[in-house]
Amino acid sequence: MKQLYAIWLIAITMFVCSTAPAQAAGKKLNQEQALMLFNAKMKMMQEKLALTDEQTEQLIPVYKNYLQELDAVFKSRKYPRRYKPTSAEDACNVMTERLDVNASVIQLQKKYIREFAKILNADQVMKIYRVEGQIQHEIRKEKRRRAGKN
């Protein structure tokens, strides 16, 4: 089981590394790359949450919708992530927007936890956002590692 996890982590790593130069140049993932990343995430989710094949099949469309809505929340930001405020008022506006985005993410998670609970058992429901966070952390860590080597 650990070997399967390692293989999928390597696959995600290779995928992230191959797309890092494009992302660094401000380009977005193409559909094929996004699908590959989604499939790798789902495979890791399946392993970490010990999902059955039936659960995985049911979870895919729900999780995909969740990720699309989450992406829309982050795209709604007025200020870029690394925006440098020029005044105290500007800083207040940036921080207010960040808090609003955080609140929107929490609302979205609350909405989808009910959807996930229709598919997952209690233990899996309790772990899903933690597992998702771990996967995202691994992806970010690998991006940083690869950026440091270039």
Description:
The protein starts with a helix and ends with a helix. It has helices at 2-24, 31-48, 53-75, 88-117, 122-149. The protein has five helices and no strands. 81% of the residues lie in helices and 0% in strands. The chain folds into two domains: 1-50 and 127-150; 52-119. It has 150 residues and is mainly α. The chain is globular, with a radius of gyration of 17 Å.
Shape: globular
Measure the end-to-end span: 32 Å
Mean pLDDT: 83
* Radius of gyration, taken over Cα atoms and rounded to an integer in Å: 17 Å
Question: In a nutshell, what does this entry contain?
Answer:
Helices cover 81% and strands 0% of the residues. By secondary structure, the protein is mainly α.
Defining traits:
150 residues, mainly alpha, 5 helices, 0% strand, globular
Secondary structure layout:
Elements: H1 2-24, H2 31-48, H3 53-75, H4 88-117, H5 122-149
Helix pairs in contact: 1-2, 1-5, 2-5, 3-4, 4-5
